[in-house]
Write a structure and sequence with these properties.
With about 160 residues, the chain is mainly alpha-helical. The chain has helices at about 20-35, 40-45, 45-65, 70, 75-80, 85-95, 100-105, 115-125, 145-165. It is built from nine helices and no strands.
Length: about 160
């Protein structure tokens, strides 16, 4: 399941500290923090817009080769705040998107605002281990401000990874 690269020792070797890269990552994290958390704020005030942005992050993450686990937090934020209020729109999104269904499958244990029996029909048989070769939907152009939110979210997450290594 892990693939041959999981056994490659060099993959896990410590890399020397690149001070300049760390400084640049810090600046990027600091500079994008507020905007990268905008989906969470929008979940309180404009749940449909927040859900649209969260789904776009899922799709763009998949097209960038990111794992569902890496891009599901905005959808989780929308679900935690709105639960049943976004169920109809979420059902529409899930019908057309494996990425959405996979994220819902992963979020089932973290989403306390909704019972799993409400999300399970949306997920169907999709898991991390099914529907692997389904094409990712192309990016959907968003409002300019929403495009900045999406890109800030990715930049923040990419830069934050420098602090975890």
């Amino acid at each position: 399941m892990a693939g041959p690269q999981a056994l490659d020792h060099s993959r896990y070797a410590k890399e020397p500290l690149d001070r300049e890269a760390l400084i640049q990552a810090y600046k990027a994290v600091h500079g994008t923090h507020d905007l990268s958390r905008e989906v969470e704020r929008l979940a309180h005030s404009d749940r449909v817009r927040a859900l649209t942005i969260a789904v776009e992050i899922l799709h763009r993450g998949a097209s960038r080769g990111w794992d569902t686990f890496d891009v599901m937090s905005p959808l989780g934020d929308v679900l935690k705040q709105n639960g049943r209020a976004v169920l109809d729109e979420l059902e529409t999104q899930a019908k057309h998107s494996v990425a959405v269904r996979r994220a819902l499958w992963r979020l089932r244990r973290q989403t306390m605002t909704m019972a799993w029996d409400q999300l399970e029909p949306l997920v169907g048989s999709t898991t991390d281990y099914t529907d692997l070769d389904v094409p990712v939907p192309p990016p959907q152009k968003q409002l300019d401000v929403d495009e900045r939110i999406i890109e800030a979210w990715f930049e923040h997450e990419e830069s934050f990874g420098h602090f975890q290594n």
